[in-house]
Automatic annotation (TrEMBL):
The lineage of its organism: Eukaryota, Viridiplantae, Streptophyta, Embryophyta, Tracheophyta. One of its GO terms (molecular function) is cysteine-type endopeptidase inhibitor activity. The keyword Signal applies. This is Cystatin domain-containing protein. It comes from Panicum hallii var. hallii. Belongs to the cystatin family. Phytocystatin subfamily.
Amino acid sequence: MARTVTTSTLLLISLLFVATAAAHAPAAAVGGRRDIKDVAANNEVQSLGRFAVAEHNRRLRRSGGVATSSDPVTVLLSFRAVAAAQEQVVAGVAYYLKVVARDDRGGGGDRPFDAVVVVKAWLKSRELVSFTPSRK
């Protein structure tokens, strides 16, 4: 009987320890954003940034240069690089990108933009959700 109580007590203490450790672990859970490290060397992230600028340009040409709420930028751009990125697991993976691009008209130099791209690998799809000037 004493052995059963001791075993049960040890099991309960172990479960409490695991639960406490899990509750204090860094947030990398489903639904939370996670920073992507070394984006300059990450070919997938750079490809998504290139896609975001190309899709922005395609939509701008299609709309005749008219801005939309999800893409208020009214100039064609040339992709330079992705400077920072985060990912979030949603119905797919949402990538929050800080894209550096240049106005194709030649004025103004490199400018930062915030782009959100959702990738659904099982459908082999990616969608530009928003493309806006970055506040910084």
